[in-house]
Amino acid sequence: MHPQNPDASRLLADQLGVHRFTAQALINRRLETAGDARRFLNPADHDFDDPLRIRGMEKAVERLRRAIAQQETIRVFGDSDVDGITAAVIASEAIQQAGGSVDVRSSNRIDNGYGLPDSAVADILAAGVRVVVLVDCGTNQPEAIRTLAQNGVDTLILDHHAPLDEPAEPYAMVNAFCAGGDGRELCSAGLAFKLAQSLLVDAPPEQLTPYLDLAAIGTLADCAPLRGESRLIVFKGLACIANSLRPGLRRLCEAVGLDAISPDAILRKIVPKLNASGRLGDCSAARQLLGRHSPESHEMWMGSVDAAHEKTRSLQRRIVGEAMAQASRLNFAEDSVVVVAGAGWHRGLMGPLASQLAQSHNRPAIAIALEDGVGTGSARSIPSISVLEVLRRCSEHLVRFGGHAQACGLTVSRERLTAFRQAVNQAARELIAQQPSGTASGRVLECDLDLQTADLTEDWTKEWQRFAPFGMGNPEPVVVLRRIRLEVKSPRRGWVREGERQIPVQGSIPTMGMDTPLDMAAVPMIERGELTLRLRDVRLAAAL
Questions:
Q1: In what order do the strands lie in the sheet with 154-158?
Q2: Is the pLDDT higher at 162 or at 436?
């Protein structure tokens, strides 16, 4: 439960003209000033911040403008996940729109692993390219950047991955985790959008609209926190997706039946399709599908994306069964991290496998594909634990690793796998022990208000709808109702009754008995014009 601050919530409510419950929920999200809260509640009325406030951006734009003026070819190289793909498309199209000559490449994680490989460095040098823009990679590749610099190539990095021992020293580093300052909430697609904003500063505002749809998709795919500019990108970008100027994206929305544009729908229907090509190695089909080309070419790219998605689904069905069987044999009284490994597993599917294991077992998970004595894996976490910090603490067992708090990639030799499994669990236990009690294990549901049923009204519930879009860093507001009696209508429907008042409840309704007093956590919403509670959790009421 968030701590309640009645005095501050009343003051903020008066300043904003909102209900004090709405003001308290804003304070819970660290929106404590009237200015920050107004921007949060009314994102449509606000413009984007000056992109040059982000450290490194001015230097990057200066070099790009010089390259455009001197007609130098600019190469954009990006990672092969959705964040990297969307960032590469945004950056390359913005450079072209500003008058530059640009070509685009993407990583092949199956052939070369994560980031800029030696083969790509050699290709850059052979092609005579003098300016390279790395998106969603490069921060932890100092040797590759040093090689390029020694050969007269200026590298501009737009990345959001945390630096490890020795971050790269490019011509311009646009990564708030290295340089500090603004932009920590932005993923690489968000940073690419800010680059477009910088390059097209003299263009009419509507010239930025074609980049918002991709920036929103990349932001959601990477689970960037929906705060500040990141939330503004998603808010405005979602409205652009349905009427996108990108024929391939419109075709994709049609193919997956995306009738309601919401963060959840994007994550369930669009992101898996776009991720599939990169997981198999070559993400060019997804990247081409998202470009602003002639509509005729998109049927071919759509077919490739569909085929890759079907193949990954087929491969994943077998792998998941084997991984779940391994996980079922773990001792969760001792294992704080789920670690599974298998020969014959496809390396490109370790990310979604780790995500599924983390969600199923409610703890960090690491999935490793073994081949020729080497394990290539992915780690995913739960919100309360930084898997990057866990891996830092046992890095002596790893060949390489990198990423951010919730998602990492790693390589480990097969002979060190047992020692790594022990070390990673020890590191996680140490990290959990340092955290406040109850925050590092189990699903932690943050609740905004502790209310009585009489407090529930349609007026402030409607105000809470302005908190959308919801996602990482901006969860739906949740209230707690104590010692209520839940009457069951069906497994998915019921109601809370108080005197003559009856409030509908939706969700997985427990069978605890209608006369049993319960404590309930729920999301108030307006459903078909009626105040309704969507059940998030329920338990037997604490004894008085």
A1: 101-106, 73-78, 131-135, 154-158, 172-174
A2: 162
**Is 349 in the same domain as 459?**
no
Burial of 320 (0-12, 13-18, 19+ CB in 10 A): middle
Q: Which distant-in-sequence residues (6+ apart) come within 8 Å of 66 by Cβ?
A: none
Q: Can you give the CATH number for the domain in which 352 is found?
A: 3.10.310.30
Q: Give pLDDT, residue 512.
A: 62
CA angle, 388 then 391 then 393, to 5°? 115
The residue written with tokens 């980049």 in the block is 211
Average pLDDT rounded to a whole number, residues 402-425: 92
Spatial neighbors of 330 by CB under 8 A, at least 6 apart, are 338
Q: Where are the beta strands (DSSP E) in 198-344?
A: 338-343
What DSSP line would sit under 406-430, residue for residue?
TEEEEEEEGGGHHHHHHHHHHHHHH
Instruction: Tell me: pLDDT of 333 over 90.
Output: no
- The answer to whether the beta carbons of residues 298 and 248 sit under 8 Å apart is yes
Q: Is 319 inside any structural domain?
A: no
Opening angle at CA 384, ends 448 and 192, nearest 5: 95
Helix axes 57-69 and 188-199, enclosed angle (nearest 10): 50
Beta strands in 169-319 (DSSP E): 172-174
Closest CA to 221 of 259, 275, 185, 175: 275
- The three state secondary structure string of 102-119 is EEEEECCHHHHCCCCCHH
Q: Give, as one character, the DSSP assignment of residue 541.
A: P
Instruction: State the total domains in the chain.
Output: 4
One-letter amino acid of 284: S
On whether the CB atoms of residues 348 and 281 are closer than 8 A, the answer is: yes
**What pairs with residue 106 in β-bridges?**
78
The reported pTM is 0.89
Least confident of 105-114, 267-276, 525-534: 105-114
Sheet holding 400-404, edge to edge: 338-343, 365-371, 374-380, 407-413, 400-404
> Residue 59's domain is classified under what CATH number?
3.90.1640.30
137/263 same-domain check: yes
Compute the Cα dihedral for 209, 214, 217, 219 and give only its sign: negative
Query: Is there a domain that residue 420 lies in?
Result: yes
For residue 419, what pLDDT is reported? 96
Vertex 114 angle, CA 293 and 174, to 5°: 75
Domain residue limits at 450: 445-544
Phi, psi of 522 (to 5 degrees): -150, 160
